[in-house]
Every structure is written in C-alpha cells, then in structure tokens.
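Request: Not sure, any thoughts?
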Amino acid sequence: MAPTRFRPLNASTAVFVLLSAMCSARAPAAPSLPEPGLYRVEVRIALPNVQDVAVPLILTQCVTDADLVSGHAFAIQSENPLRACGTIDYLIGEELITYRVACPGPNMGYAQARFEATTNTYRGSIYMNMGGKNMTMSETQTGKRLGPCP
C-alpha cells in the first residue's frame, strides 16, 4: 500500500477550517433559572405505599432574583420540621437545580432536592428522611409564572 501524501493547506482553506472549528465549539449553557415574578405553586406530599396523602397545597408567591439565587424559591413549602433546617450545597446547573437539607445533631433528618426549570416554570421534588423515625416522604412542587409581582 502506497503512503498517503498530504498537500499543505492554502490560506483560505486554513481560515475556513479555523472558523468552522470556532463556530462548532459550544459556549457553556447558561444556568437554568426561571424568571422572577408571581408564581402559582402546587405542592404535593407523597409517602411510600400510601396513595393520596393530602390534598395538594396551592400557593401564590412572589419570587425575586434573590430567592432564585439563594434557593429560597425552591424551599420546602409543606408543614415539615425539615423546613427549619439549613440548606447546603445549593447548585444551579445547566439542566438541574439541586440542594441538600441537613438538620444539626445526631439522628436528625435530611433531604435532597432536584428541580428542573424553564423561563416560566419549574418542577422538582424534595426527598426527605425524617431522621430517627425511619420515615421517608417527598414533596413535589410545580410552579408556573403568572406575570410580574404586584
């Protein structure tokens, strides 16, 4: 088999190859946060092996830039003791918003949350373990932007 010979690139071909490579390189995607505004949020509680634990809670809340950046917009909304514990590891990714909740002390409760967001909606679940009670539950939130805050 004869060796393959390569021709040197002329200037216009080199520029074309360079520009093609630059255009095909993807810029990092922006974080996925919804727009600030007034949101209608449906909150559902679920327990393993229990159907229809409670009637969904419907909230209307004004979500600010500060709420989105701090994670307060995606906090536990139900009457749950973990609501008073601290949020840690709040991360805004390209496709997911995640955080953990950790209560201080031995045998205390904890939670993990995962949310997806678009410009005008968000949906996610907070998976909670109630500590020494060997009880798990989840809270699912679905938020839809209604418009600007009053």
Q: What stands out?
A: The beta strands are 37-46, 57-63, 86-92, 97-102, 110-117, 121-129, 136-147. The longest strand covers residues 136-147. The chain is about 15% helix and 40% strand. The radius of gyration is 24 Å.
